[in-house]
Every structure is written in C-alpha cells, then in structure tokens.
Amino acid sequence: MRRVADMFKPLSRPAEMIHDISVLTLLICGVIFVIVTALLVYVVIRFRQRPDDDGHEPPQIYGSTHIELAWTIIPILITVVLILVTSRTIGEIQNRQMPEDALKIRVVGHQWWWEVHYPGLGIITANEIHVPVSDRDPEKARPTHIVLQSADVIHSFWVPQLAGKTDLVPNKDNEIWIDPYEVGVYFGNCAEYCGTQHANMLLRVIVDTPENFQKWVDNQKAAPPRPQTPLEIEGERLFFANSCVSCHKVDRTVSQGVFGPDLTKLMTRQTIGAGVAPLNHDTLRAWVKNPQDLKVDCYMPDMQLLPKEVDAITAFLETLK
Ligand code: CUA
C-alpha cells in the first residue's frame, strides 16, 4: 500500500528536469564535500599531537587577503550558478504552454483525501487520478494539466516520478503538468503537514494507454447497476435514510454531499480512506462500521450502525461500480 516512489527514476518531463538539476547540485556539493573532508583528514593526521611536542602554540597568523578572497568569491560563484540553473528549470516548467486539447484535471485537497474533477468529461473521483500515457517525444506528448486547490488547509501534491511538489493553497489556484512516459501506477502523497492524518493522505496516478483511458472514462460516466438483492436494496434505503447523503455524492440520486469523497463509482478504486487500506469487502465493511478504526480522527464519524445495517450499506456500496 505504502510504496515510496523512486525519485531517481523520473518518468515525466518536469520530474526529469528536476532530477537533472538535483544531480548537478549533488555533484557540486559532492566535490565540495570530498575536498573539505580530504583537507580535514590531512590536517588531523599531519598536525596531530606527538610525544616530542614542546607545548608551545604554533605561529599565529592574522588575515590573508588572498585566502579570504578565494573563500568568498568561489562560494558566491557556485551559488550563482545553482541559482541560475534552478531558475531556468523552474521557468521552463512553469511557462510551458499546454496544448489546447490537453486533458484538464482539478484536484482539491481535503483533510485527508484528494478530490479529483475532470471538468471536460463530467467525472468526479477521489484519491486516484487516471491519465493517458504521454510520450518522450515532445511532438507526440499528451500532457495533462492539473489545477490544484484546497478546501481547508495547505496540502502539497507530490508524485515524485511525475513532477515536483506543488502546494494546494486555500483561495489560490496552483498549476502543474505531467506527461508520464510509461503505463503503470505512480505513488504519491501529501507533502505538507496538514493535520493528524497527513501521513494517510496517499495518492495514486494510474497511467493508462489511450484505449484503456477511454474505457475508464466511459465506465466512469455510465450509471452504476441498480441494487438487485434484498440486502442491496435495504442498504440503499438505509444509505439515503441515514446522514450518508449529507457528505457524499452518488450521481443521479438525491445524495449530493460534497464534504466527503464522491461514491458514484466507489468500487472502481483500488484503495479506501485515501490509501489507508486496499478496497475490498472486508475493509469497506470495517470502514462503514467505524471509519475511526482504520483512520483515527478522520472526519467521518462512527455512525453507530447495527451489524445488519453495516452489512446492508456495505452491500449497497458494492453496487457502485
Ligand atoms: Cu494533506 Cu498533508
């Protein structure tokens, strides 16, 4: 569940550019480290205490214009080089013009989950972002443009293999773009402390082939099948009779809450509770029974449901696919 993405294997243009300057910075700092350490080791050995020391202080030297100029000018030059290279990369990433037909996504950070909108497609989901694969060749690239917003406090969107960290700030839109080169699942997380469950604010970017992405889109837009079994039907009744509807949205129903994740296609997702557990019957049932067991302090309270109500609501939720 909790995979740490390897930031030394960038698989998207912005991540690649950041990786390149990180390597350059690391190299420069590495060279400085080796020189300083070598000098230190030399001095420690060369001037160590010996049995025949006469106990006098060595000659005291006050000031040397040449040495002082050298250790002032060289670090300034190194810092200027790093500033210039970094600003150029930041500029290149931020000023990149998105093609007209780029996929647009809006991600809203919440304590402690991610709301994901596809405004052009009419899709809302949570914690898992599907995007089509792009290409290393800039001519064939299909970048995805992401607008970042926050519903409460500052969060930070970070999928190390795809792009650098960008904060989600209340009342301010930040923007990033990604163009993943390979199909697969990319792990990310919130990178700005945002409260008790900050560590369980996980994120997945699922990169599909264009065909599979289209299939995912079609499925997300299709209505989920109607509840069939008596348990599912009872679960649906209970879902709408309880306060589930005031926080959650199930499209095409009266359930239009916006405080919690959209549940219209809940069962198409891989995880529950923003990555706190894999999504399956047992974890879903445990969540409905008492979300606080899985995710302490999350904003969904223990609804004090009876075991048979938990079974019915779980059965209803499992039809949402
Ligand atoms: Cu959201 Cu940390």
Summarize the structure.
The chain has helices at residues 13-46, 65-94, 210-221, 230-241, 244-247, 281-289, 291-294, 307-317, and strands at 103-110, 113-118, 123-126, 128-132, 144-150, 155-158, 166-168, 174-178, 184-190, 202-208, 271-272, 277-278. It is an alpha+beta fold and 321 residues long. The two termini are 21 Å apart.
Protein model, in words:
The structure is a single chain. The chain is α+β, with helices and mostly antiparallel strands. It has eight helices and twelve strands. The chain has helices at residues 13-46, 65-94, 210-221, 230-241, 244-247, 281-289, 291-294, 307-317; strands at 103-110, 113-118, 123-126, 128-132, 144-150, 155-158, 166-168, 174-178, 184-190, 202-208, 271-272, 277-278. The strands form three sheets. The chain has a five-stranded mixed β-sheet. Strands 4-10-9-6-7 form a five-stranded mixed β-sheet. α6 (281-289) crosses α8. The longest helix is centred in the N-terminal third of the chain and has 34 residues, at 13-46. The structure holds dinuclear copper ion (CUA). The site of dinuclear copper ion (CUA) has 9 residues, from loops.
